């Protein structure tokens, strides 16, 4: 008994040893600041930033998408699947206990002396009931490393789910803003078409009375048809954008209720944040790091295959030829055994697994570093887009005002007989696309603010995640057993 107790204690102590490198976060050379960060920033990365647009319809669309979007539900199911893999992997650290029941009745060929023995047992019966247990002692930490990898995969999958939430909110906001921009372009096109229609009617009437030539009528008609050709194109884009937005929010394709016009929306403030904070704020970077942790742990699991495994088995129960005496008398039976097995010549089977694990860890490390660089570039690109679109919008507003004045003056001079209609036509042909571009630029500026919050990440992702209604609980820290030493 003392020897058995000593063996179990030694096995338990050895179970705390783990092979392979422990994870350490790689050093990241983050820039001190973003290249195009403006001076005026606000601490808004941890707020529901889309409410800054002050459009209740947009707020409702995002809330509906968070509850009903299919991709979010798929991502939540993936997290549950990864958590189940963790439970399965971690279960190998503990003994497996089961039971067995058996009954057998058999007739065999009788020997010659059977006739000399009264009541020779043929046929014979056998009954058995036992509890069985088996346990692989994790001597070198193989199972612990596998559990560490599975735990990291759960966290990586959960970060992927949070990344879906981040992308969903940004896509809904961008689609809605694009829709409102197209609505503004359609309004400009229809208003311009109405103005051109008045010109066509006027010149047609003047031509009938010989006041203008047919050339004037043709010029006005061509101007009208140019504007008319834009309307079906814009209406097609509106219908396609509505359908995409409907699918995002979990509806069948169809019309979308509108809120404020693109001219009445409020522009969100630029969120504050340092480049180094992206490592803790962006779900894709957190996901890449957890994938690196998982790959790092698999190295230890592979190296443990070089060393022997120790397995313990045992059984305790009863066996009897008489079912009535199965649990009484001398029916008790028990057994226990220990097995040590290890490789001698594997001809590259183990070394190949170690090499695979090390290469996978290197690939995960490079992916993590690349993800960080891409994250810095995303933020800088969003910042420069936001800054330059503001400047472009200001210039476009001035351009439209100047072209509007030019058109008005040209019309007045034509009505007064001081210039030809070609001057009016030239002015109006320049004004119409400028007005369309102005409506598009307003929508693009709002979209750049959305992309900026998307690239920066932040606590708003957690706030949005809470509105999904399907946030799986994170695995507890106890899901990963700490080493004994």
Give a description of the structure.
With 485 residues, the protein is an alpha+beta fold. It has a single domain, classed as Outer membrane efflux proteins (OEP). It is built from 10 helices and 4 strands. A 4-stranded antiparallel beta sheet has the order 1-2-3-4. The longest helix is centred in the middle third of the chain and has 67 residues, at 142-208. The protein is elongated, with a radius of gyration of 38 Å. The two termini are 26 Å apart. Mean pLDDT is 89; it is low at 9-15.
Brief summary of the model shown:
The chain is an alpha+beta fold.
Main features:
Outer membrane efflux proteins (OEP), 485 residues, single chain, elongated
Cα radius of gyration in angstroms: 38 Å
Q: Count the beta strands.
A: 4
Number of helices: 10
Element string (H = helix, E = strand): HHHEEHHHHEEHHH
Described by strand count, sense and barrel closure, the largest sheet is: 4 strands, antiparallel
What is the residue-mean pLDDT, rounded to a whole number? 89
CA-based shape? elongated
Helix content: 55-70%
Domain module count: 1
Q: How is this fold's topology laid out?
A:
Blueprint: H1 2-14, H2 56-68, H3 70-90, E1 96-106, E2 124-137, H4 142-208, H5 214-248, H6 278-281, H7 283-303, E3 309-320, E4 332-341, H8 349-415, H9 421-456, H10 460-466
Antiparallel strand pairs: 1-2, 2-3, 3-4
Helix pairs in contact: 2-4, 3-4, 4-5, 4-7, 4-9, 4-10, 5-9, 7-8, 8-9
């Amino acid at each position: 008994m003392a020897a058995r107790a000593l063996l179990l204690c030694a096995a338990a102590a050895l179970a705390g040893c783990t092979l392979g490198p422990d994870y350490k976060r790689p050093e990241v050379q983050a820039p001190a600041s973003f290249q195009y960060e403006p001076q005026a920033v606000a601490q808004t990365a941890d707020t529901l930033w889309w409410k800054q647009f002050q459009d209740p319809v947009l707020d409702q669309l995002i809330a509906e998408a968070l509850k009903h979007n299919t991709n979010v539900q798929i991502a939540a199911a993936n997290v549950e699947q990864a958590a189940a893999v963790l439970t399965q992997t971690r279960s190998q650290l503990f003994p497996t206990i089961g039971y067995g029941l058996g009954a057998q009745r058999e007739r065999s060929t009788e020997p010659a002396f059977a006739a000399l023995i009264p009541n020779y047992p043929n046929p014979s019966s056998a009954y058995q009931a036992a509890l069985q247990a088996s346990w692989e002692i994790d001597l070198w930490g193989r199972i612990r490393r596998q559990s560490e990898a599975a735990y990291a995969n759960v966290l990586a999958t959960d970060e992927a789910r949070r990344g879906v939430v981040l992308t969903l909110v940004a896509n809904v906001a961008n689609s809605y803003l694009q829709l409102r921009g197209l609505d503004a372009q359609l309004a400009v096109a229809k208003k311009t078409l109405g103005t051109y229609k008045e010109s066509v009617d006027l010149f047609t009437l003047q031509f009938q009375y010989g006041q203008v030539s047919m050339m004037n009528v043709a010029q006005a008609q061509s101007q009208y048809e140019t504007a008319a050709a834009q309307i079906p194109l814009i209406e097609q884009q509106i219908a396609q954008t509505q359908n995409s937005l409907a699918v995002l929010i979990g509806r069948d394709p169809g019309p979308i209720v509108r809120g404020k016009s693109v001219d009445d929306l409020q522009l969100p403030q630029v969120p504050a944040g340092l480049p180094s904070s992206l490592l803790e704020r962006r779900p894709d970077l957190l996901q890449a790091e957890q994938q690196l942790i998982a790959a790092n742990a698999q190295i230890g699991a592979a190296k443990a295959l070089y060393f022997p495994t120790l397995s313990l088995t045992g059984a305790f129960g009863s066996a009897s030829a008489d079912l009535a005496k199965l649990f009484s008398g001398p029916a008790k039976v028990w057994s226990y055994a220990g097995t040590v097995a290890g490789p001698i010549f594997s001809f590259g089977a183990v070394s190949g697994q170690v090499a695979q694990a090390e290469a996978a860890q290197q690939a995960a490390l490079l992916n993590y570093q690349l993800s960080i660089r891409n994250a810095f570039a995303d933020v800088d690109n969003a910042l420069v887009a936001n800054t330059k679109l503001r400047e472009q919008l200001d210039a476009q507003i001035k351009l439209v005002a100047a072209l509007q004045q030019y058109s008005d003056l040209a019309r007045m001079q034509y009505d007064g007989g001081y210039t030809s209609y070609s001057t009016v036509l030239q002015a109006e042909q320049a004004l119409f696309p400028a007005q369309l571009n102005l409506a598009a630029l307003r929508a693009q500026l709002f979209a750049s603010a959305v992309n900026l919050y998307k690239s920066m990440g932040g606590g708003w992702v957690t706030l949005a995640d809470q509105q999904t209604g399907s946030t799986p609980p994170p695995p507890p820290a106890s899901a990963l057993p700490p080493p004994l030493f």
